[in-house]
Amino acid sequence: MFAELRLGEAIAILPFLAFAVMFLILPTLGLFATAFSDGQGGLTLDNIGALFTPQILRSFSISIRVSFASSALGCLIGLAIALAVIRGRLPPVIRSTLLTFSGVASNFAGIPLAFAFLATLGRVGLVTIILREVFGLDLYRAGFNILSFWGLTLTYLYFQIPLMILIITPAIDGLKREWSEAAETLGASTWQFWRYVGLPVLWPNLLGTLSLLFANAFGAIATAYALTGSSLNIVPILLYAQIRGDVLQNQQLGAALAVGMIAITALANVVYLVVRTRAERWLK
Amino acid sequence: MRGNRFWSWVVFGLGAAYFLLPLLATLEFSLSIRRDGYTLDAYRNVFADPGFQQTFSYSLIIGLCTIIVGIVIIMPAAYFVRLRMPQIRPVVEFLTLMPLIIPPIILVFGYIRLYNSSSFLPLTGSVMGTNILLTLGYVALAMPYMYRAIDTGLRTIDVQTLTEAATILGASRLRILTRIIFPNVITAVLSGAFLTLAIVMGEFVLASLLNRPGFGPYMQNIGANRAYEPSALAIISFVFTWSAMVAIQLLARFAPKSSARKD
After folding, report:
1. Which residues of B touch A158 (CB under 8 A)?
2. Whole-prediction pTM value?
3. Domains of chain B: which residue ranges?
4. Does A264 fall in a domain?
5. ipTM of the assembly?
6. Which residues on chain A are in Cβ contact (under 8 Å) with B233?
7. Is the separation of the CB atoms in B99 and B144 below 8 Å?
8. What's the fold here for domain B56-254?
9. Which of A180, A236, A248, B3 shows the greatest Cβ crowding within 10 Å of its Cβ?
10. pLDDT tens, B212-242?
């Protein structure tokens, strides 16, 4: 009796598919086509080759380093906090507060986050002043700068750590009490439990989250732009400048930059998608 | 095992310090516009600025349009996949996750190249067209969250039985979707909607590159030109995001906890 409804059902999914083609797939494919075109209808690798200049390579290098540092530290610190709160027998109210706050902080990115860190660790930031006046430690004389690799990494951690906490909490909940009890009965120490049971189960999840956080940081632009202007040339800021000034520069180079970025985030996410399927095995 | 608990408090305390210090510093800075003590002048300046009012309401309207368009596009697709074609779910899920793989700046670059004034669909050629393009771009950014929210809502109700019952009673597909399914998943849809709003309100790169007067570009401009007002804006944004998340939590309390009927 449902056979005659098939057409109606196809219409239900049509807007979604049309949207995905027009606003996700075609724009991306268009950039690929531009990146490999010589402007006269021929194919070329010249635009990709043009990426290998010292300035652009430096941008990719700083982007990759900031993304990797903020995702790796975000994973480690987020895991430590989540473990402390969930399995460290702290009062339950702390757990719910942590999760609510993580929801807020993981979405508190972009321009306001840059403002907050300027007010904290900028030249006249509160923490900078307190450290100087009270503890006699002049951060800026010691070589720290909010407009630097470590400054940006420290800022990115503000949304990376909470994202890690939100993603890893269900996985930690999935570590059954029985497992640690069984390990304990068999005479395992806490360290042995984590080494042979806990971490191997969480491992695919950790690796997956690492790549998600990496992509998250790699594509972010607003925080860095509001924080550093263009003094720290990460790839998205370079691309932003390229798009703004398209009249002067060549469009193919911008498209090649975009393709380079997609290649790197896609690589990170392929890792995520592959390990996610493995992660779900134990956490039913 | 007592040591275990001690270290838990240490880790938690360090984390709390890292997360609360920037908020306190920003709050303190936003109140320090005068030398003779704390005032709310920076907030007064922000709220009195016509630029703030215009860009805030512009982004709010675009955000609401994003939510409506998002629901209209995603809801029928999620329903259809769940009801009839679970085998194409991986494809649909991959499409909805694409915006997490392709950064927003690349999407908008693609839009500018594809829909410029000399293309087959010259959306950037007019103000209205650009507004539409911005809205659709935000639908793309919100899709991973919106789809997941709606799909989670659909999982808690018995889509199959509700659809069969309504069909036997003579309801059309559109009527089933709008009168039966939608009211049943409205709490889930609303939580996706609040998240979308939180994302759209502060979004910078799409609005900036499409030259639309959004709240994100306005904040960036204030940041480049003022000293204390940016901190006030950061606090306002934080409160806005926080309200959206609290709204989501409250909604979760009213949401049905499990499937009404399982075979």
Report:
1. 18-19, 22
2. 0.89
3. 56-254
4. yes
5. 0.88
6. 112, 115
7. yes
8. MetI-like fold (1.10.3720)
9. A236
10. 999 999 999 999 888 899 999 999 999 999 9
